[in-house]
TrEMBL record:
Residues 1-10 have a biased composition (Basic and acidic residues). Gene3D superfamilies: Bit1. It holds the Pfam family DUF2000. It comes from the Bacteria. InterPro entries: DUF2000, Pep_tRNA_hydro_II_dom_sf. This is DUF2000 family protein.
């Protein structure tokens, strides 16, 4: 597989630009604050509720695929029904104005060790994925109009990037 292969699953042992957890770092019996990495999603507070939820779900989906060891083990309820694993290290969802979101985006791009998935508004306004990809390819990065982004990286670096944003 190559870096452009859409089915590629990153390996934290070989992908130096994609953070992740090794099996010995997955500690589901400890506080999420003890995790080495921090995961936050930042969304534009001007979005309508349905678009907000959609944007958060989409960047979270991309994050779950990219970050090794993020998902905890599945578990059974009292009746024995199995429930899929959820992110064991937690995820904080924050809100920001479009202007502040653009600043967070720029800081994340420049921060070493911080991985980001972003969702341009065009992803919500096109109904055919290939159309979205064509529009994305023709859009200057400064004009993306990002409506949500997901950051994973060293706790201190992520905290500095999202400093003073409010919890949703």
């Amino acid at each position: 597989m190559t870096d452009t292969d859409p089915d590629r699953v990153p390996d934290p042992g070989t992908d130096t630009d994609v953070p992740g957890y090794s099996p010995d770092e997955i500690r589901t019996g400890e506080s999420t604050r003890d995790a080495r990495l921090k995961w936050v999603v930042v969304v534009d507070t001007a979005l309508e509720p349905g678009r907000t939820v959609n944007a958060v779900a989409c960047v979270a989906s991309a994050t779950g695929l990219a970050i090794a060891g993020l998902e905890g083990p599945s578990g059974a309820d009292a009746a024995g029904h199995e429930h899929p694993g959820l992110p064991w290290a937690g995820c904080t969802v924050l809100g920001a104005s479009a202007e502040r979101l653009a600043t967070v985006h720029a800081k994340a791009v420049a921060a070493p060790g911080v991985w980001m998935a972003d969702m341009p508004l065009s992803a919500q306004t096109t109904r055919v994925y290939d159309d979205y990809l064509r529009e994305l390819a023709a859009t200057d990065p400064a004009d993306l109009a990002v409506c949500a982004l997901s950051l994973v990286g060293p706790r201190a670096a992520v905290d500095a990037i999202v400093k003073k944003l409010r919890l949703l």
